[in-house]
């Protein structure tokens, strides 16, 4: 039987993949918003810090074709359990759209909400 920390690592890694699936979709804002804690910060390259204080700000910033890729790959993934209700995922991401490539490091901190769902507290990407 996997340890509690192993289950947390698996859960937040699955949520990170769900985040990247949303970010690379045609219209990411609704799915990303569902993954976020109401006080989440989203830090993308060459953009102001996004919050959910004004949902229209997130929707405008993530409007299509934001991060519209044909596919992505996470490498050098590390999941860090902070405690039983929080964890962080760090990684390198490589995404492609046609001949264009996006390479960055990423980090997302997740917390478990009262409903048991993991939610984003802070997500950051740094271009390589």
UniProtKB/TrEMBL annotation:
Bilayer-spanning residue ranges: none
Domain DUF4440, chain residue ranges per copy: 12-120
Pfam families found in the cross-reference section: DUF4440 (PF14534)
InterPro entries: DUF4440, NTF2-like_dom_sf
Protein name stated in the entry: DUF4440 domain-containing protein
